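User: Can you fold this complex?
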Amino acid sequence: MSISVRRITKRFDDFVALDDVSVDVKPGSLTALLGPSGSGKSTLLRIIAGLETADEGAVFIDDKNVTGRPPQERGVGFVFQHYAAFKHMTVYDNVAFGLKIRKRPKAEIQERVNQLLKLVQLEGLAKRYPAQLSGGQRQRMGLARALAIDPAVLLLDEPFGALDAQVRAELREWLRRLHDETHTTTVIVTHDQEEAMEVADQIVVMSQGHVEQAGAPRDVYEEPANEFVMTFVGQAHEIGGNFVRPHDLEVTMEPNGSTSEVMIDRVVHLGFNVRLDLVGTDGERLSVQTTRDNAELNEFAPGQIVYVKPTRHTTFT
Amino acid sequence: MGKYALRFAGLGYLALILIGPILMMVWRTLGDMDAAWAAIKDPDTISAFKLTLMVTVIAVIVNTVFGIVCALLIVRGKIPGRGFLNAFVDLPLSLSPVIVGFALVALYSAQGWLGWFQRNGFEILFAKPSIVLATIFVTLPFVVREVVPTLREIGTEQEQAAQTLGANGWQTFSRVTLPAIRWAVIYGVVLTAARGIGEFGAVAVVSGNFAGQTQTATLRVEDAYQFAYGEYAPAYGIAFVLAATAVIILIAMIFLQPKESRY
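Assistant: Here's the predicted assembly.
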């Protein structure tokens, strides 16, 4: 089911959280709302769910105007950053909640809940209470609970933000696979550009209540619409009015006409990649990504003078 | 040595201040069992216990329902002056019960703002309704005080999750909010009951203290003491029953402590 957000404005007292924002989400897609804190991405998600009301504008789900509708009538599955688990209920009862509210037959509820618990790999933990689960397990329970009502759209508000890096990476991949199986239209809010690039097929970059750019991950990275997107989605250095990504800088041992002189400050081994932290002649700092083999071949070391040249750059007018 | 000094000071203090008077009363009751038992069996005493029970049950029900409503308003309500309301709820704790009783007399007497009842033959003052009103007044803070911090702690996310899953307002309250605050409510109910049973000052002013009609158990104890003429066993006997009730409530509270491990 599609989601269409039309010219939404939302203020909290004097603070404008969303300023005339429009976003389109295609049926069956996985869209990431990406931005720093305070960019309005969570507020936008909550307005889509009906947990927050917009001052102006309209929200359409499956081409139906749901603007004035309460969350109960929108058929959205919502996953919260801090799980919002019903602490007094078992895992089973948490997942069954939406179905019980809908007064489904007991046998049907049981079948559906067991099927979902299997999907989120919590089969053996049905009788546990949320307090007895790890963060990752709680969030998978939250997902199963949201999916139980067969939502028209699945909305996730920084779902992996409270988890440690390894669990986060696991769940991220798992969410992507789940989406490939179910094709439920999904919107995920995140401040982590890597997470957005990895799971989403559309990224909406937001900042200060505006949409800066919307597009496929590759387009947002390779053809950023402006300086903000260039520097927020992946790293970038400004060199003489041009923006260059760290892996688009070539390091040479000898100067030629178009290179600039820098000193190596630090050599950081990141596994496959090696990052060189550099200081320019004017004291400006930048970093370069190069391969491990290249770093070993050139015997890069702190204090060494080398020369850099962009192989590819972007200019904004 | 310091360890023992601390224990001696603490336990000695509790023994002298708390245990001593109660034990003495129990001792006196046991000393003249027949007189004490006769006083407890007296129809006017039975009637006083029944009245106290009825009044306490009503006060508990009213203050549980409205206590939860007020707590929701204080924590979740979008009204101005919530902080003021929160502080105002504590008024019965700082106000002397005698003043509460006196204020109720002023309000419900024929010349008071709610004197209409009195003027039209609805007996409130010096009758059971005023006892109920006085008890509700003095026991109002307990449920609110217990529920407010718990509501703040659980936050609104669970309720929002219930809404997105299709639960309406009542379903959200009954299936998510109420179970989450239930230990606070139970604790508040116990405190309300204990305070209701023990209330004396406000009730003494408004009830009229007619034996067998508007005399509560605490008023009955006071009566037995006032008109003892050297024979205190009846007063000790009735007081013993009230004290035993308080101890049972205290023990109930210990067992009602939630098992933290599960939730």
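The domain at 237-310 of chain A is CATH 2.40.50.140 (OB fold (Dihydrolipoamide Acetyltransferase, E2P)). Chain A touches chain B at residues 49-51, 70-72, 74, 76-78, 80, 82, 84-89, 97-98, 101-102, 129, 131, 142, 145-146, 148-149 (CB under 8 Å).
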